[in-house]
Amino acid sequence: MSLKNKKLLFSSLFILTAIIIASCTLIGSDRPTIINDEFRIQVDSVQFSSGIYNFRDTVVLKFFGKIGSDSCYKLSHFQVYKEGNTVELALWGKKDASSGNCLTGNVDLSGQHYRVFPVQTGFLDVTIRQPDGTTIKTGIRIY
Amino acid sequence: MKKIIFIIMLFPVFLQAQGFKALGGKIGFTFIHSTWDINDPEINKFYPDKPKFYNAYLGVYGEFLSKKTLSTCIDLSYHLTDYSFEYTMYDKYGQNIGTSSIRNSVQYVSLLIKEKIRYGKDLGANYYAFAGPRIELEFNKNVDKDFSTIFNNTNKVIVGYTVGGGFSWNFNTFQLLGEAFWHGDIIKTYSSGNGKILNNGLGFIIGAGWYVTKK
Questions:
Q1: Degrees (nearest 5) of the Cα angle A137, A87, A67?
Q2: Strand duo A59-64 + A45-48: pairing
Q3: What is the CATH classification number for the domain harbouring B178?
Q4: What is the total count of domains within chain B?
Q5: Do A79 and B46 touch (CB under 8 A)?
């Protein structure tokens, strides 16, 4: 192999390895895991609407906590698992800045609710999954 | 990162070897999904369906110790595996309002050493088959909390094999190539009492490189 060819070879090698390392960095750890830029909301507390619940009543869960730090944040949807009288929830928020007019100031859940329909008497177990992997567990007696 | 640099530094050693034939870049994808056989109750609650897999490869290749029909090849690639989990979204009344997805990604450096048997002239079309061992080193991952019990316990080193075939079109100083391959994993990506993940896959690669013709 001639010296000129060797130089060409090593130049090519250098460029290609640089591309690989750059790709590792660019495609790597900074990519969000959540598609559509949605996020789980940290719930501070959960309350049941007042009253004694009977079988086939609607149980209303009210949530409290901060969604975001400006007016473009909002509650997006619930992620739900239901099995008998066990309910597990995660609350998802979303930032919609399409209007370009996001006013500074916290946006809270302020008692936004989710409705549960118990399918049997006994204890209704409710678990809230938090963004950090911990959970809030609560419940109420269904008569 | 030290492992990556070490592997890259091995390349010049091979380049000095007799019978150097080609060096270039490749990009590839797998389109047959891998095995997700996990029965974790905590994951299954929100994500009852299996994930969609996505594998991408970007790398360099070298062909050495070249004889008339046989040569030894090395592929060094950055390998990204994405696991995308779909879940159902509900409104405050418990009504289904559509689906969304959560993506987990694991990144590897993949080293494949393969023997290649080819048919064709030095210039023009060449057809070939290849097989060889492959080792993948995990160096980074981006994992959602709901899946941490699985992805935080994946194997950092995966040993497998690759078999395949392809064609190259060789010009005086460069070549274009296309390959189809099967990646089989001998060491599983994940294995426990909850099940297993295997990253087997059928895929294709296109590439271009610098090519040495016979003098």
A1: 65
A2: antiparallel
A3: 2.40.160.20
A4: 1
A5: yes
What pTM, to 2 d.p., does this model score?
A: 0.79
Cβ-based contacts of A34 with chain B (< 8 Å)? 102-103, 144
CA distance A130 to A127: 10
Q: Between chains, do A16 and B25 touch, taking CB under 8 Å as contact?
A: yes
Relative orientation angle of helices A3-27 and B2-15, to the nearest 10 degrees: 160
pLDDT tens digits along B148-207: 999 999 999 999 999 999 999 998 888 999 999 999 999 999 999 889 998 888 999 999
Q: Are A47 and A60 in contact (CB under 8 A)?
A: no
Range of the domain at B86: 2-211
Question: Parallel, antiparallel, or unpaired: how do β-strands A86-95 and A122-129 relate?
Answer: parallel
Report the alpha-carbon distance of residue B1 to residue B6 in Å, rounded. 9
* CA atoms of B69 and B93, how far apart (whole Å): 68
Say how far residue B140 (Cα) sits from the centre of its chain: 15
